[in-house]
Specification:
Layout (H helix, E strand, L loop, with lengths): L4 E7 L6 E7 L2 E8 L2 H11 L4 E5 L12 H8 L10 H6 L6 H13 L16 E4 L2 H8 L9 H11 L10 H17 L4 E6 L3 E6 L2
Parallel strand pairs: 1-4, 4-5
Antiparallel strand pairs: 1-2, 2-3, 6-7
Helix pairs in contact: 1-4, 5-6, 6-7
Length: 209
């Protein structure tokens, strides 16, 4: 049986760029840091040949300027998260505060022809991309104990427990990308996962814990 390759991506602004980590059957394979959407999408699709790609950025915009359903559901569980604006609000923001979300949008658009945004947990063998969120991943895998001040230690420990080599994960952006890739692997391999939200405003996928 062919290995399942997954990629996780941490999305930053224009200066920080993207950090991506690839796993093969849940084991570390490779990584990439780039500010270029086309370079990253080519790496995911043609070099890594990823089956499922998990991205830490909103896959849809708010329709009314309020929190999306997935974000409201996370907050009700005690999982703090960003509130996504409408696309117009993001574009008009004077300090480009939401620039990283616009870069996430560009990445989803580059991937979508071959890896459409999932509206439910992927079926076996399905190629797709999905939204996920490292803080929510940590919250679920640690039994509702995720602390922002301890995120480096807690998230690295989760990767260690999953058997992922930490040697190449030299910063928190790569650690977060690896957590996203781990979530993609669990979803692709049929392990128990949970979704927040709805297909209209986008779902967030996390391990069930």
């Amino acid at each position: 049986m062919a290995a399942i390759t997954t990629v996780g991506i941490d999305v930053g602004g224009a200066r920080k760029g993207f950090h991506a980590v690839a796993l093969s059957d849940g084991s570390y394979t490779s990584q990439l840091a780039t500010a270029n959407v086309e370079t990253l999408s080519d790496w995911c699709l043609n070099e890594m040949k990823a089956q499922v790609i998990a991205i830490d950025a909103p896959c849809r915009w708010s329709t009314n300027g309020c929190m999306r359903a997935c974000e409201r559901e996370l907050m009700l569980r005690g999982i703090h998260c960003f509130a996504s604006p409408t696309r117009e609000q993001a574009i008009r923001h004077p300090s480009d505060y939401y620039g990283w979300m616009l870069r996430g949008e560009a990445l989803y658009q580059a991937l979508e022809p071959s890896h459409p945004i999932c509206t439910a947990l992927p079926k076996a063998g399905e190629h797709c991309c999905m939204e996920t969120f490292p803080h929510a991943i940590t919250w679920h895998l640690r039994g509702s104990e995720a602390q922002a001040r301890q995120k480096r230690r807690q998230r690295r420990e989760l990767l260690r427990q999953a058997g992922i080599d930490l040697e190449q994960l030299s910063n928190i952006d790569l650690v977060d990308a690896a957590l996203c890739a781990l979530t993609a692997h669990r979803a692709a391999s049929g392990a128990s996962c949970k979704t927040y939200g709805d297909p209209f405003e986008g779902i967030i996928v996390v391990p069930a814990g």
